[in-house]
Structure formats: C-alpha cells, structure tokens
Amino acid sequence: MGDSAAKKAWASAHTTRIVMNLNHNTDRDILEKLSRVPSKQGYIKALIRADLKKDEISTKGMTKRQRALFERLRGERE
After folding, report:
1. What are the tens digits of pLDDT across the range 1-16?
2. In angstroms, rounded to a whole number, what is the distance separating the alpha carbons of residues 20 and 53?
3. Would residue 40 count as lying in a domain?
C-alpha cells in the first residue's frame, strides 16, 4: 500500500532527498564501512555535524564590533 496524500505532502514540504552513486571498484572502502554501520543516514549526518562543529569558532565574549569584523573576515575566507 502506498503512502497517503498527506504523508507525501508533508515529506515534500519538510524533507530533501539526496542520492549518491558509489562505484563498486573505486568506492569499495566507503561501501564496506557503510555496510558495517547500523544507520547509514545517521552515520553520514554525524560526520557532517562533526565537520561543522570543527569549523565552528565561538564568538562568545566578543564585542559587537569584533563579531562584525570576524563575520566579515570569515565571509572573505569562504
């Protein structure tokens, strides 16, 4: 039985689907790792969040002027 119209509408409004093709030869290491984790989606999300956290620099304790300068410099770097 298919999903209800309401469920499809909710998914369309609240989710984004990302698909990735992995090559059996050149991506074998990635495929083997993903086969060992209990949740591929959870594992990939955790890796991305860890990467985001690593790049995050705290602006706590900065003055408004320091924070503005920091944000401007960070924008130039990206």
Report:
1. 688 999 999 999 999 9
2. 24
3. yes
